[in-house]
Design a protein that fits this description.
Layout (H helix, E strand, L loop, with lengths): L3 E7 L3 H11 L6 E4 L16 E2 L10 H19 L4 E2 L3 E5 L5 H13 L6 E4 H7 L7 E5 L3 E3 L1 H14 L3 E3 L4 E7 L2 E6 L3 E9 L5 H7 L7 E12 L10 E4 L11 E4 L5 E4 L3 E2 L13 H8 L2 H9 L1 H12 L1 H9 L10 E13 L10 E5 L2 E6 L8 H15 L3
Length: 401
């Protein structure tokens, strides 16, 4: 007889693993996590910039703001307790045009509303003290921002979850879900499994998993690829820590920026280009099924028609190294074409409503026997411990654990 697990988690990224760690802590229920890939953290977790976000950008009172601030401090504590390399190095947000100065002031007020202390406005001269090669009219210093390797963090989450009794099965892709008396039957690429309750942390596939479960989530994931460049070793001295532009408030993307990485080197990017494959990390990546799914969604066309100019600019910057470097030179004018080389890319799972509106906040829905995480892009990695604990509390109440 197939074992019936009390809870099955779908998705072995950092959110699924943080949830497994939280649910397995001191509990007697049986817990299974299934991951489609051969390795944990293969998608958004393993393709981000490794930034521990401060909570500067998010609407006060939102799930993003609350979980980022709580998760940031929890992440710093967790890394210290488990000897994971990390650094609270701070960052500067740079205004390069006069039109950006009011937005910079609003960012400072928003950061203060989210509980960030010691945020400091910088004059053009003071910017040079933090980043001698930056050019800007003014800036904002945010000391709470840091850097870490999230794949290493996710690996430790998995280790702690399994030590507490959770089972993790990799190379186990969910293919279908059937409801039966008292629970669910999970049809996977390797076997048939049973569970009483399910938590959907499938990231780039979360809306499809919800539909497999019989849920109509009211959103669709639209993938945006972000390309990165890396500074040559001889030119990493151009950047001391993290340098960001003032973001466009219309979009959840932060613009191309510079990030010093925890294991050495400096990364530049990402842009935000519509991806034609949910798990496609190359410019040539193309999935007929994913593209068809995208083109048949009315919300995509409304989004595209409303923001086509921005979209075309991002595509041009993706195809042209010169355009990409030109955007970076607004922050660091000394940067030259030969100073950067193409690096990796990430794909952001961005939920979009039928009216074409981007879902800005984290979005979690509860259903009979199920919890679905339907929008958890950046700063989800930063907030992962807090999100995992939030889901665990929801599960304990809803599933009567």
């Amino acid at each position: 007889m197939t074992k019936t697990y009390d809870i099955a988690i779908v998705g072995g990224g950092i959110i699924g693993l943080a949830t497994a760690m939280a649910l397995s802590r001191g509990q007697k229920h049986s817990l299974l996590l299934i991951e489609a890939e051969l390795a944990l953290g293969s998608h958004q977790t393993g393709h981000n910039s490794g930034v521990i976000h401060s909570g500067l950008y998010y609407k006060p009172g939102s799930r993003k703001a609350r979980n980022c601030v709580l998760g940031r401090e929890a992440m710093y504590r967790f890394c210290s307790e488990h000897n994971i390399a990390h650094e609270a190095c701070g960052k500067i947000v740079v205004a390069t045009r006069r039109e950006e100065l009011p937005a910079l002031e609003k960012l400072q007020l928003r950061g203060a509303a989210n509980g960030l202390s010691n945020i400091r406005q910088l004059t053009a001269e003071e910017l040079q003290e933090y980043e001698p090669h930056v050019a800007g009219l003014a800036g904002l210093h945010v000391p709470q921002t840091g850097i870490v390797d999230y794949v290493e963090v996710a690996g430790k989450f998995a280790e702690l979850a399994t030590a507490a009794g959770a089972e993790i099965r990799k190379n186990c892709r969910l293919k279908g879900v059937c409801h039966e008396t008292g629970g669910l039957v999970l049809k996977t690429s390797t076997e048939t499994l049973r569970c009483r309750h399910l938590v959907n942390c499938a990231g780039l596939q979360c809306d499809r998993v919800a539909r497999m479960c019989g849920r109509q989530p009211g959103i669709k994931v639209i993938p945006f690829r972000g390309d990165y460049y890396e500074l040559s070793p001889k030119r990493t001295s151009l950047v001391r820590n993290l340098i960001y532009p003032v973001p466009d408030p219309q979009f959840p993307f932060l613009g191309v920026h510079f990030t010093r990485m925890i294991h050495g080197g400096v990364e530049a990017g990402p842009n935000a280009v519509l991806a034609l494959a949910r798990e496609g990390y190359r410019k040539s990546s193309f999935s007929p099924a994913d593209t068809c799914d995208l083109l048949m969604y009315g919300g995509f066309w409304k989004l595209a028609l409303g923001h086509w100019q921005m979209g075309m600019g991002e595509i041009y910057r993706s195809l042209s190294k010169r355009a990409f470097v030109s955007a970076l030179q607004k922050l660091v004018p000394e940067l030259r074409m030969e100073d950067v080389a193409a690096s990796g890319a990430g794909v952001r799972a961005q939920a979009v409503k039928p009216n074409g509106q981007l879902v800005d906040d984290f979005h979690i829905e509860q259903d009979d026997r199920m919890i679905h995480v339907l929008n958890a892009p950046s700063p989800a990695a930063t907030a992962s411990i807090s999100i995992g604990e939030t889901i665990a509390e929801m599960a304990k109440k809803q599933f009567d654990l």
